[in-house]
Each structure stands twice: as structure tokens, then as C-alpha cells.
Amino acid sequence: MCYYWYRARSSHSRGTQQYFGREGVLLARSPSHTVAERAVLLGKAGLFSSLHDAELEVVGAASEVVEVAAGQVIFEPDSIGRSLFVIESGEIVIRSDLEAGSGRDLARFISGECFGELDLLLGTPRTAWAVADTNARLVRFPARNREFRDVLQEHPVISARILAKLLAGIAGRIRSTNKLVSDNTPWVRELRRQVFVDKLTGLYNSAYLKDQLSTLSRNPQQPFTLLMMKPDNFKEVNDTYGHEAGDTTLKRLANLFSRAMSGDRTAIRYRGNEMAAILPREDAEEAQALAVTLGEQVRSMDISDCTGGVPVTVTVSFGIGCFPGDRADTEALVTDTHALLFVARAAGGDRILRVEASP
């Protein structure tokens, strides 16, 4: 939650009155900007340059344009970073102190640049003052009535692209001072977990699948196989023994599935009780062998501790599709491979089916 209060303060070197508060209070919103106009403004910033027009409109809808006068404080030390700002016009200076004759300018940002992103990513208190050095117009993302975490959850694929840009930009700034951001840094791991990992199973989620397929499909010379798995009688377990039994069964299925994904293989919770795996440089025969092994392991899985001692055998069906041999379009590959899970179950389940290659 953001706090909005203000008070007058004697100015820094410009000799103006300062109005400030937690996370940029009393910034005048500019009602004349439509979502489309905000999208255009955001698209000019490098941070959002990888987004398509439709995606920019989503980000624009979660943003707002604010206007600040020269000398106005946008945020202060100890306020929690809940937004980043893209400058449409004007200049913003980051200062270590606000009092006249004290502190120093730490950074200066001009039109097209953004600031405040690191504190937004970390969710930590600001450590400096952000002050308008001239009259300025800014795009705040997300708007003060939105939470960054909510935007991430509502639009995971778009958020993943934004986060990738943020990480790259921050890494670049840090490298310029001879420091490096490690992939094992705790906050980097946490960001990736929030965007790409399913909370219940610990597997990657469908947003990660989409992101990876987009990357892999750029090189048709490097084939891969998509393996999808769905339990045939999961609804029976869930309806008969309750959702807790269903969740436990799903987590055990995910564990078996994940353990089978050695090397470059990637385990994903695709949707509900369905799982998927990307198998780089593996063909349909190798995927078939993996499916046979997994099917045997699932049939041997003991879930009697969550069914009141009643022995229940879980079976699974599989769909296999190869890129680019079966489908050169990854969206069609996922759609057609996924459809096989229901064909297999309708035929009695416990089956492995392969996408028919396009003529």
C-alpha cells in the first residue's frame, strides 16, 4: 500500500518549496493521456522496447502519467519502492541529500530514460532523493492504485520480458562500476521464481514454456520434442478423496516427472494436472522411451496414505510432438500435442500418442 501525505520543506539549491512524501505523493496526474498514448510513451523507453503493441497497451493500462514541477520530490529515502518512472520530458536528479549545500548528485536522468526500477524489483526502501530538476512529465508503472506483484501474476509472459530487460539494464549499470550481478544472487532467483515457477509443484509454469518455445523456435536447425502428460483418473482421486489428496497426488506426479528430466530437459506444469517437458535435440523415439518409463513409475506410485488406505492405481497418457518435423509453428505444436491427451484418455487412457506430421 502507498502512503500519500505532504508537507512543505525548505528547498535545496533551487530555493523552491518542496512537497514530498512516501513514493512520490501529490504528483499531478495527467488525465489527457489515453492508454494508447501511454503505450506509445512506454514503447520509446528501452525497458519496454521488446514488447509488442498489444503488450504495451497492457502495460499502459497499468500505468499513469504524472506531472512534476521543478524542485518537486518524486520519492524520498526510506519510502518503499512500488513504482518505476519513465521520463517523457524534463530531467530528474537523484540526490544523496536534499538540504541546500549538502549531499551530492548521484545520477541524472533525461527524456526516454527510467529510474527507480531497482527498488521496485527488490521491494526495499529507497536510499536517496529523486527530485525534478526541471518541469517534467513521467509515466509511473505501475500506477499508484496497482501493485507490481499483481501485474506480474496477471500478465506473466509480458512481465517476464520486462524483468529480463530490467535485469539486463541493472547488470549493465553495475558492470560499469566493475561489479557483476550473478544468476545465483538471491533476489534474481526470487524474481525468476515468482515469474516462472508454479507454487504448488515447484515446476516451471506455462509462461516459462511459452517463453522457451519462442526462443527455441528461432532456430529450426536445432530440433526438440515436446512431451505432455496427463493423469487419466485424477478427477476420480480428487472427487472421491478430496482436494488435499488431489494436491498430494499432483505433487508426487510432478516429483516423478521432474526427476526424469535430466540434462537439458525441462519439466513444466502446463495447466491444472497436465505436465509438459521440452526435450532439446531428442526425437520421438527417445520421448517414447521416456514416456514408457514414466508410465511405469506412475502406475507403481503409492497414494494410499491420502486415500484412507484404499489402493488406487494412477495411470497417465502422453502426447508427443516434434519441432520442426511434426509442426514448424510452436503454437500449433502445443495445441496438437495437448489435444492428444484427451484422445488418449477417451480411448481408455494409459496410452502414448504422437502428433501426425503435417503433409
| CATH class category of the largest domain | Mainly Beta
How many domain regions? 2
- Class from helix and strand fractions: alpha+beta
| Shape field | elongated
Strand order of the largest sheet: 3-4-11-6-9
Backbone CA Rg: 26 Å
The CATH architecture of the largest domain can be given as: Sandwich
Low confidence ranges: 1-26, 174-181
Instruction: Please identify which CATH superfamily of the largest domain we are dealing with.
Output: Jelly Rolls
Q: Overall pLDDT, averaged?
A: 80
- Major sheet size, sense and barrel closure: 5 strands, antiparallel
Query: What fold name goes in the CATH topology slot of the largest domain?
Result: Jelly Rolls
Distance between the termini: 56 Å
* Helicity level: 25-40%
Order of helices and strands: EEEHHEEEEEEHEEHHHHEHHEEHEHE
What is the number of strand segments? 16
- In terms of DSSP E residues, the strand content is 15-25%
Q: Helical stretch count?
A: 11
